[in-house]
TrEMBL record:
Gene Ontology CC: cytosol
Keywords for the protein's UniProt record, in alphabetical order: Aminotransferase, Pyridoxal phosphate, Transferase
Ranges of residues in domain Aminotransferase class I/classII large: 128-497
Family listed: Belongs to the class-I pyridoxal-phosphate-dependent aminotransferase family.
Cofactor(s) the protein requires to work: pyridoxal 5'-phosphate
Pfam family, any one: Aminotran_1_2
GO biological process: aspartate biosynthetic process
Protein name: aspartate transaminase
Provenance organism: Mortierella alpina (Oleaginous fungus)
């Protein structure tokens, strides 16, 4: 049988009726690659299939073998066994035509700073290493703490014969949502009694901020309105709002000279911002500075925002954890509600319940009317359905149970006081050690700040010394988690700070 002249257009597809053909065809590379293939072909264009020989001297585009419906490659002709020949062909193809991913040009994203710190700490074998980066409570022994009240709630849920694992509604567990909203607004809140307070269960505080940001990006009436975040703030704030397409600007917050609140700069920013801008506020335990406005300063902030019709978006991650008093930590939110503001509050139960991995969060909504509240909830439900469908149940069940049971609630308050008081004690201990050492500078801000974090005022070179010489892990901006200090390492840390400040 004479050989046929094979052109690119000759072959188009392989015949699925021949299993052997499919096996051999799978060895061909991507389109446009050129190779020499000695082979037989079955030509289906004839009334009865006939086998035609393709000599090894003919150059065939492998892609062309898959472009003509008339022929199917059956097997390679060779003096060797077919399997050996196919292996040779495959090796030849792989060498000449390496696979290229469609994602080949995707850039590698930088590591998350906090998680990278934790990884570096774990990899460090130094006996005196200290982790002051992680935003999670630790005991005096440096261990994670499961709140006793959470353990009790766990046991109650385990013994509940009615407990199931069915899907929650799109907006979450109703008792949890109501309890969370009441916790932040207060049981006597007019917004609640008027029916103007709504909510959506979210994936912890991060999810609550994202849910609110996504809604504002889509439905805020002032198109192109910017979200103003404090300078500095939690790094995820910028990422979340810019991620939903909103412009992100900063307002002054930290005053390096006083190591306190830059109130004047904050107010001036609110006064100069375009009318109807969005301001992200920390109601308590500001992250990362630990500096909170006083009640009188909150009044000035509310005045400035009201004068320009700005929208307040509170991110409340530390209610009860900051001062140990739930009502005190909610003061700013309740004050703004009493002034008639419409607002959002992102709530996290990671810190104050120790439910870090359970991702229990809530977005509280305060609107002007019941109708508007319902409209907002409907749009959030629509958006949430497309992102997570519905939130997880277990963490929200624990929170709901504790908040709705009087005895468990009282025990929770005691647990909160335990955590808050240990943090306060560590602030005093660090201040005392630095004072004893005569460390240059004024360190009163350590005890004046509140909550889990302290903004030390250490420079980036000084932080580098702490990491490289003393194996103390903290963020480059000098923020430390007070929860990482205890009676066994606070003196060591103070000595490290003293050396870094004196010589760097």
């Amino acid at each position: 049988m004479p050989p046929i002249d094979v052109q690119d257009k000759f072959f188009d597809a392989i015949s699925s009726s021949d299993e052997n053909s499919l096996r051999h065809a799978s060895h061909f590379p991507h389109a446009h690659a050129k190779a020499i293939y000695p082979a037989h072909a079955v030509c289906a264009a004839y009334p009865a299939p006939r086998v035609v020989s393709i000599p090894s001297s003919i150059a065939i585009s492998p892609s062309s073998l898959l472009r003509n419906t008339h022929c199917t490659l059956v097997h390679a002709m060779s003096s060797h066994a077919p399997a050996v020949r196919l292996q040779q062909i495959n090796s030849h193809i792989a060498h000449k035509h390496p696979a290229v991913s469609v994602f080949d040009k995707v850039a590698t994203a930088p590591e998350d700073v906090i998680f990278a710190l934790t990884a570096a700490y774990k990899a460090d074998n130094h006996p005196n290493k200290v982790n002051l980066g992680v935003g999670a409570y630790r005991t005096e022994e440096g261990k994670p703490w499961v709140l006793p009240v959470v353990k009790k709630a766990d046991l109650i849920l385990v013994d509940d014969e009615n407990l199931d694992h069915e899907y929650l509604p799109i907006l979450g567990l109703e008792p949890f949502r109501k309890a969370a909203t009441t916790l932040i607004l207060g049981s006597d809140s007019k917004a609640i009694t008027d029916g103007r307070a709504g909510s959506a269960q979210c994936i912890s505080g991060t999810g609550a901020v994202y849910t609110g940001a996504q809604f504002l990006a889509r439905h805020y009436p002032i198109k192109g309105a910017a979200c103003y975040i404090s300078k500095p703030t939690w790094a995820n704030h910028r990422a979340i709002f810019s991620g939903v397409g909103m412009p992100v600007l900063e307002y002054p917050y930290w005053d390096p000279s006083s190591k306190g609140l830059h109130l004047q700069g904050m107010l001036e920013s609110m006064q100069s911002a375009p009318r109807g801008s969005i301001f992200l506020l920390h109601p308590c335990a500001h992250n990362p500075t630990g500096v909170d406005p006083t009640p009188d300063q909150w009044k000035q902030i509310a005045d400035a925002m009201e004068a320009k019709d700005h929208f307040p978006f509170f991110d409340c991650a530390y209610q009860g954890f900051a001062s140990g008093n739930l009502d005190k930590d909610a003061y700013s939110v309740r004050y703004f509600v009493s002034r008639g503001f419409e607002l959002f509050v992102a709530q996290s139960f990671s810190k104050n319940f120790g439910l870090y991995s359970e991702r229990a969060g809530n977005l509280t909504i305060v609107a002007k009317s019941v109708q508007v509240k319902n409209q907002i909830e409907s749009q959030i439900a629509k958006a949430q359905r497309a992102v997570i469908s519905n939130p997880p149940a277990y963490g929200s069940r624990i929170v709901s149970l504790v908040l709705s049971d009087r005895e468990l609630y009282r025990e929770w308050e005691q647990n909160l006081a335990t955590m808050a008081n240990r943090i306060i004690d560590m602030r005093k201990a660090l201040f005392d050690e630095l004072t004893k050492l005569g460390t240059p500078g004024d360190w009163k801000h350590i005890v004046n700040q509140i909550g889990m974090f302290s903004f030390t005022g250490l420079s980036t070179p000084q932080v580098k010394v702490l990491k490289e010489k003393y194996h103390v892990y903290l963020t480059d901006n000098g923020r430390i988690s007070m929860a990482g200090l205890n009676s066994r390492n606070v003196k060591y840390f103070a000595q490290a700070v003293d050396d870094a400040v004196r010589h760097h």
